Fold this protein.
Amino acid sequence: MLNDITLGQYFPGNSPLHKMDPRIKILLTVLFVVSLFLVSDPLFLIAPVIFIGILYLIARIPVRFLLKSLKPLIPILIFTTVLNLFFLPGDVTLFSFWVIQISDKGLLNAILVLIRIVCLIAGSSLLTYTTSPIALTDGIERLLSPLGKLKFPVHDLAMMMSIALRFIPTLIEETEKIMSAQKARGADMETGSLVQRAKALVPILIPLLVSAFRRAEELALAMECRCYRGGEGRTRMKQLKLHLRDLWGSLITVILCGGMIALGFLL
Amino acid sequence: MHESILCVILYISMACPGERILALTEYIHAVNLSFSYQNEPEAPQVLKDVSLSVEKGSFVAVLGHNGSGKSTLAKHMNVILLPSGGSLFVNGMDTSLEEHLWEIRQQVGMVFQNPDNQLVATVVEEDVAFAPENMGVPPEEIRRRVEEALRTVGMWDFRDHAPHRLSGGQKQRIAIAGVLAMHPDCIVLDEPTAMLDPRGRREVLETIHRLNRESGMTVILITHYMDEAAQADRVVVMDSGTVIADGTPKEVFSQVELIRSAGLDVPQTTDLVHWLRTEKGLDLPADCLTVEEAADAVAKLFS
Amino acid sequence: MYAIEAQNLTYTYGIKTPFEKTAIRDVSVQIPAGEFVGVIGHTGSGKSTLIQHINGLLRPTSGKLLLNGKDIWENPKEIRKVRFSAGLVFQYPEHQLFETTVYKDIAFGPTNMGLSEEEVRLRVEEAAEFTGISSALMDQSPFELSGGQKRRVAIAGVIAMRPEVLILDEPTAGLDPRGRDKILDRLRRYHQAQKNTVLLVSHSMEDVAEYCTSALVMNRGTLFAYDTVENVFCRTEELEQMGLAIPAITQVFHRLAAAGIPVSRNVFTMDAAKQALSAALEGRGRNA
């Protein structure tokens, strides 16, 4: 049951997109998302839709993956579409029934928002699909590293994130073990009222907390024994190097987004 | 001024030649080491007046039941704990001096009991790189060290695996590789096999024996398994914070009553021979350890 | 009728996923009531999967599991009752302790059974007695105890449900010799007093030889043997091929027998060894 949790939704692969520098990918994703919001004509959104489609093909990510990550957002999508469609007054009324009026502006805006959100999700999901959580952490750490000079604890945050990533599978396994052990003592977690079920969690959460603290303590000791003393003076084995594909990727995305933004302002 | 200091140093080093030799061959040297968790006179002493030397390149097993002080002793060797009384020298460096801290931690690698709680990274090779990264080793050199360490423990093929998918024995070998990447002189292992199945235990023991044999690594193995101790060059038995026996496995295990009183097992072979000697009054060598030795000794009774 | 009976038990993990793996295949075994069974096999042999079937934590992919002649999955809604009658102590059971006092923690199982307060108290005290938890410890927090004590409290928590079958998955893992002996001696006493069926999963062939009446060996997901300890341990060569080391004392007697000394090859415990040697030495005296 708990095994279903896929972390960071990483979809292992060997495509050029997977191999791109995480820093570049993060920056380009931000650029893409921003430019989506600067476009006000649905016509110009055709370009990003095609662009994203091609990228998914290159990265060889099945469409059902994207649909899966869109699923929880369906209520929001419906809500905003309905809101735009029915309640935005416009110049021409296309359809009218009782209190509902659909105007040309409403229709356009509804389509615009819909495509925008789908592109937004598709774009940012592409980042997490093609970048392993550890590479993502690494990229964020390096992008934020200038903030370190302002005493912002960039390294510590990144270390916390990667330790969390390391221990989540371990703690999930542990949770399953404790659940089985308490079930073997007759704990009932499946029936009863909400209060009863919440109470039934105590025998699982307490041992889990105790164990998490014990692990944290032991890990801190082991890290100290391996000469860990914070980010200062630390080197990294994996150096991020920019490749030709990063340059090409950046060029194409920047031209596309730049074009979208420029057209958005011109028209 | 400088000359006079040099003169003094020269004089001291000539005056106490014994001390100098000691610093060279005795890799770890405890002098009347005492430890208690609180700094009060009534606080229970976990270590009482322990004096012990470990030679460079040797394989020493420290045997004792839980609470005998063996883990506390190990934690002093890596400056996790500081002596309440007496002192401990690692490669001639006093552990109580702050300036030696990182030097000692780099020279004495530490491996702990729970393999899950000492791996930091989500990828094996990243984990092995953790210590040299902390030490500020240049990237290419780290890469070289990681490969060397992973090959030594036989885990190179697993370099891009996630640690949580490996077996206990494999995780523990990764932990050893992570320590090897610091290029230490000595490895202290605190009950590294207590949570492993027989196969994992075998893997870990083979690895550390090979390290000792082939790279001359000083190994200090803290354990309560007598069969692991029996394979060491030297066994130190601890009970209530003191060393109660110290010698080769044969010398130590032949003292059956002493080992039992310390809450430990003796090998079945030694036990059998001991019973024949004491209960049956037969003349047998007391120091039979292996199956062959015990069988040969008993067989002689019938010839 | 047997206490535990497995009929062609097969279990496959993660069906229809890339991780699909058959953990046990076609296991059939009949264990009479009152046995002290040593369950042997190395990691991945399927022994953990097998024992989790006995108390209904896993449901067989195919085949049946019967407790006292009754299929435990006959009525899936009643599976909680099965868990009370087949108590399972997991590895490192001290990690499941959560209550504020030792007493409350041991009482967790019996309370879940819906017993009266008086009955719960009776069972907790009985279980504490069996596992050697003194009454002075009852009001302490379980987190303040030593490792060995914690483990005994956790075992008491299962014994307090008065299961007909008690299953323990490596109850001595990580303990020092003193802690190990204490737990195994207590379990032997419990088994002798209650006369119920006990399954002990262990990596130590010495402990199985010393404490168990029969042995069940799993190998690569199938049942290799279920028989008396003597009959199983006789198959030394096969066991060694599986990577299961026979006790050192047995190895000594193999060598002695091979050298033509009149002793049996089949000596598995220290007591048996002493008896065998005493007899052989007396024989030597008479012959001389």
